[in-house]
Specification:
The chain has 233 residues and is of the alpha/beta class. It has a single domain, classed as TIM Barrel (Alpha-Beta Barrel), CATH 3.20.20.140. The strands form three sheets. Strands 1, 2, 3, 4, 5, 8 and 11 form a seven-stranded mixed β-sheet that branches. Helix 1 runs parallel beside helix 2.
Length: 233
């Protein structure tokens, strides 16, 4: 079956995410837009995923747990997991690799932890948009160690897409997919051997995708979606 997806959305835990990107607003917008599945991928953390998963389950929207990690080279990489617990374990593993730079909310934005009632239950102290002290290759390897899928993010867009941050797509890494932005010129490289994802990278509710990008999966479930991206469906 075809699942309408948006697999790169930020919550208000990302400092660059709008304050309205709360668990209920994100899932509610996905529901209104008739999306079958979403992935919320905050910068270098998974700590808002438990609340988002609780809301998603109530609304019948599949949540693929994810993070957007920033490598030492300032390249962005998506990590997808089967469960929130796996995502949280990976999040805890990379936190010591995040520089101990405190967030300045007035400059970078708030980093709000929320519960399933959209109540603020805390904040993240370290600046989450900093680069980890792990290389591109090391981040990819660590994602695999924690059972995740490695997907370089928006490879053709911005200074954090690997084609601009690194100048190339590193070889020797078993990428599960590549995220390619449709808002800028397409990469001048052969992508025929890769699974391609198109997502919104939404930081505002109105930027969440309409039902336009689909993934063929065996059923509407996180396991089927994970397997489809991994090429095992």
């Amino acid at each position: 079956m075809k699942l309408f997806c948006d697999l790169h959305i930020h919550s208000c835990l990302s400092p660059c995410g709008d304050a309205l990107m709360t668990p209920n607003n994100i899932v509610g917008m996905a529901f209104i837009k008739q999306l079958d599945a979403i992935a919320v991928c905050d910068h270098n953390t998974a700590r808002n995923l438990p609340a988002i998963k609780e809301v998603a389950d109530m609304m019948g929207v599949v949540l693929l747990p994810g993070l957007e990690v920033t490598t030492r080279e300032e390249a962005h990489m998506l990590a997808y997991f089967r469960t929130v617990e796996q995502a949280l374990a990976f999040s805890d593993a990379i936190y010591p690799h995040l520089p101990a730079i405190p967030n300045n909310p007035k400059f970078f934005g708030e980093q709000q932890l929320m519960n399933a009632q959209d109540e603020v239950i805390g904040t993240q102290e370290r600046l989450l948009i900093s680069a980890l002290d792990l290389s591109f290759e090391a981040c990819a390897a660590l994602i695999g160690e924690y059972g995740g899928l490695c997907v370089p993010a928006h490879i053709n867009r911005g200074s954090n897409g690997c084609l601009n941050a690194l100048g190339f797509l590193p070889s020797g890494i078993a990428y599960d997919a590549l995220e390619v932005s449709k808002t800028v010129p397409q990469p001048q490289m052969d992508l025929s051997g890769y699974r391609i994802l198109h997502s919104s990278d939404a930081h505002y509710l109105e930027h969440i995708l309409e039902p336009e990008f689909t993934i063929e999966a065996g059923e509407k479930s996180v396991e089927a979606l994970f397997s489809a991206i991994a090429g095992k469906s």
